[in-house]
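Assess this one:
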Amino acid sequence: MVDVGGKAITERTAEAEGWVLLDRAICDVLGEGALSKKGDVLRIAETAGIMAVKRTWELIPLCHPIRIDLVKVSCELISESERIHIKCLVGAKDATGVEMEALTGVSVAALTIYDMCKAVSKGMTIEGVRLLSKTGGKSGDYRFKDVGINGSEVPK
């Protein structure tokens, strides 16, 4: 593990996102408000993401345990484009950042959606898991920029 004992404790935040691309059949079921046999897919995925954030240090080797102050996970069905958008915001006051926690929250929420919807169709893709922003720490703030093939910024 990296020694963070000499680092200042500062306020840290990180936000990550990811997408689950769905079959139309899954969109139709979720859009009608139907629940899987296990319950409300989007709410359970949000809960799974929160739980994963709190256990990141157990899942990723050499990751420091961090006292998490804030976790927000949102899963939004976008029916017209047949996908679910997942976002995870994490905040803490610590000597190390919370980027891995935010990425883990998104990843586990996406896996939970897959698990709960696979009975309807296994034709799902998890993609675009990325860090959107981070604040705090020695390296300063970071904001993701979409860059196209020619180097120009891609509008969101």
The chain has four helices and five strands.
